[in-house]
Amino acid sequence: DTEVTQTPKHLVMGMTNKKSLKCEQHMGHRAMYWYKQKAKKPPELMFVYSYEKLSINESVPSRFSPECPNSSLLNLHLHALQPEDSALYLCASSQDVAGNYGYTFGSGTRLTVV
Amino acid sequence: AQRVTQPEKLLSVFKGAPVELKCNYSYSGSPELFWYVQYSRQRLQLLLRHISRESIKGFTADLNKGETSFHLKKPSALVSDSALYFCAVRDWVGGANNLFFGTGTRLTVIP
Fold first, then answer.
1. Which of B31, B39, B83, B101 reaches 20 to 30 Å from A39, CA-CA?
2. Residue A55: which of B43, B90, B96 has the nearest Cβ?
């Protein structure tokens, strides 16, 4: 398995809802990432997990809450989001925490907040 | 902090023409640079890394430290090369690495 799998592919949620995005990889990668990508913009880093520990939180609002239950799974819990949070949320992983071999990206979850 | 600049948002070339996508970086040490590509309706994927000095799908990119550039080149473009291309630089921040992406260049190859 050489892929990063993200579910769901599409999600529509209200501003009072609680939902979770899921990411899974079975490549033995030790670092996993959440990125946010708005239309026609580059991906922007949200969270980095190295060896299942949160290393970077790029000043992301607390309505986004990451979780790394084990080395293969990464979740992003969403609560009380705003319409401007609508975007493509990308999960990625890298073989080593230094990222020397590049990142493997999932296909993303397209989130719409209404 | 490391950053990359892609000066062209859009680039159109005819099939068979050479193509060059520009990327300039700012970094005080030895940068680790990458090119990523996003084809329509597909996931973002690694195209090549400067440290491997490889050629993927006919594309090459040479790190020019004097000009702080990492331009992506292909001698003869294919229609299937049409995609969004991101230059990215790796930085070590807060005890972990991060990829900083440029704003991207959308390449359209005209049949």
1. B31
2. B96
Q: Which pLDDT tens digit goes with each residue over B49-87?
A: 887 777 889 999 988 888 999 999 999 999 999 999 999
Amino acid at A3: E
List residues of chain B with CB under 8 Å from any CB of chain A: 32, 34, 36, 42-46, 49, 51, 86, 90, 92-104
Burial of A22 (0-12, 13-18, 19+ CB in 10 A): middle
Which chain A residues have a beta carbon less than 8 Å from that of B100? 45
Residues B10-38: pLDDT tens digits? Answer: 999 999 999 999 999 987 777 889 999 99
Residues whose CB is less than 8 angstroms from the CB of residue B6 and which lie 6 or more positions away in sequence, other chains included:
B21, B22, B23, B85, B86, B87, B102, B103, B104, B105
- Give the three-state DSSP class for A69: strand
**Cβ-Cβ contacts under 8 Å, A50 against chain B:** 95-96
Helix, strand, coil distribution of chain B in percent, nearest 5: 5, 50, 40
